[in-house]
Amino acid sequence: MPLQNRVDPFGQIIRTAERGTMMGNRGGALHNEQREIVRQYKSRRWIACVLEFKGRKRTVMAPNRYTELFFLDEAVALASGHRPCAECRRKQFQEFRAAWSRQSGRLQGADEMDRELHRARVRKGAKVTYEAELDSLPNGSFVEMEGSAWLVWDDGLLLWTPGAYKARRPRLHGLNVTVLTPQPIVSCLAAGYVPEIHPSRHVL
Q: Which of 48, 140, 145, 188 could hold 195 in an S-S bridge, CB 3.0 to 4.6 Å?
């Protein structure tokens, strides 16, 4: 049985055989000695990382070590509330921080951004969402429609599945939708941050 260590755009940690193109963590160990998820996060530091960095090797879900989480791509990581890692994705972190500064008018460090992000991504154990006009959302945002997660990209919406984007539908005008990506991150996307998207988007 696959480990429960994959994250969907709703922020849920799920089981699937699909690994994804990006790794991350939520500030510590979320699993027990049986490699079962027992908490959704350990701290406010939710980051998105590369799969390989400087030849480091890890045993996934090792005892008393941080829980490795996996995402289809960066847009999914952002939707679930993760930001770029300042170590293994330094360039992307700096770009994200610059976009944050442009949209907020404040140049903030990782700790300050994490505090604001945490308020925008989870409240009383549940994911925070909000309503917005579909026309107003930038590329890379995720919305919920009919119980599924859809990526906003150019003039269309792409259906998320654990292994790839599987379908495309037109981006309708004048439609209000539930936004899954936390509001500060949507603002960063609108301010010019460009996330890494799974290659399957090119075939739809």
A: 140
